[in-house]
Write a structure and sequence with these properties.
Structural class: alpha/beta
Largest sheet: 11 strands, mixed
Mean pLDDT: 78
Low-confidence stretches: 214-233, 240-274
Helix content: 25-40%
Shape: elongated
Amino acid sequence: MATNYNLTDLPFELLDNVYGHLGLRHKLLLAQVDDHLGNAFAYHSGPIYKNLKDIMNLHVGLPTELLGVLLKYCGHTIVHLDWNNQLAKQIEQYCPNLKHVYVFVQDHSIERIQSFLDQRKDSLISLTINIDRNVPTTILNVVGNMTALRQLKYYGFVDNNVCQLKNIENLKELKIAHLGKKSKHSLNLLRIVSSKSKLRKLTLINVNLLPMKVNCKKIWPNLKIYSEGSYKNERDKAYISLFKDIISLPKENVYFANIWTNNMLSVCPIWWSI
């Protein structure tokens, strides 16, 4: 007498072959049927969704419901993704190994994102944060406590809260880009970067810098400067001097554009390196 088998009765090894003949949308439709098929999908996928951002660029329009299925069964393998507020619960629950995250912070999502960043402050090593015009920059108080970060890119309005980034001492790459025209706030760059001995790439865009009030020669007596561009006065020269013990990379790794000191556009662009 013949025995009837359902897909849910098949071992992972056979289901792996079945999944191999399907596109992503149909894989996820099958995976959501039950946990056996979902776990078989995880077995079939392995680490292929490690960088979910790149995968989603190839599958634009995939329904949020199916993305939730992917996170449920493969979230433990994902290390790189773009935050999706509709999937916040699944990201928090199923993605414990995230290392690189991009977040676009809007007014309706700020509390959830702040909570997520606080939860992952000891594990995330790379964060790109883009803050909408109507969102307060107080979220940087949370970012400033993410001491495991090695790379941080901030796109938003530059005000006093940006100085909270001074607490992230292990950064290797930092980017601060003021959205809109020149920032009205004068940024104390020395306060932010002086403790970052591991910093190797620095980018500032549309930022108004606070005049230096220290003698850089006394802090870094063995200063040697190699730069492209020009500076108009001794204060601008002092800003170049600032990075003696912080940066030791080719000039293309340190980029400053639209930098103002004393309400004057001093350098645009200029590369600074030691």
